């Protein structure tokens, strides 16, 4: 039985772009080989390599995990109670609404979301939220209520009363998120911490100014 040989040329590689010839002194040197199809391949090879590298860089940029964005969208003073006996102290109740944004192309499941509130550098209290889920490139809102009882340091009481009289109270919030990013059948660990400086208008219960930055 006769075998038919294929008439198609073998695929080209970058090594086909060059050929070796002998010089007059018997030394070998490499010069470009200018066949029609080989020349076309050699001209296109750098462009193909550049396109592949750009495509790989784009895929890494899209699928590389990033920290979620957490923003305080509401910080409302629910209750304020001033006690004069046995010492002057203040009970405060805050209602906090957080917006958690997932910037990745896969879903995010957080096990816990802890929010701590500070006033003029001193921690007043914190609250921990239950687990939740945020879809890919989506956002979710988390509500929490913080009861701060017995603010009794005289300097803090005087400063808080002065701020309440002016109608604006500055708070600092520190939010910690821990969970996993869902990628197919795998779960990538997630942990982020964000600090925000929030100025609250006590007359209309709105946020006047907010500055957030990653915390360590």
Automatic annotation (TrEMBL):
It comes from the Eukaryota. Residues 97-187 form the Late embryogenesis abundant protein LEA-2 subgroup domain. The keyword DNA damage does not apply. The chain crosses the membrane at residues 45-64. It is a single-pass membrane protein. Gene3D superfamilies: 2.60.40.1820. GO terms for cellular component: membrane. It is found in: Membrane. GO terms for biological process: defense response to other organism. Signal peptide: none annotated. This is Late embryogenesis abundant protein LEA-2 subgroup domain-containing protein.
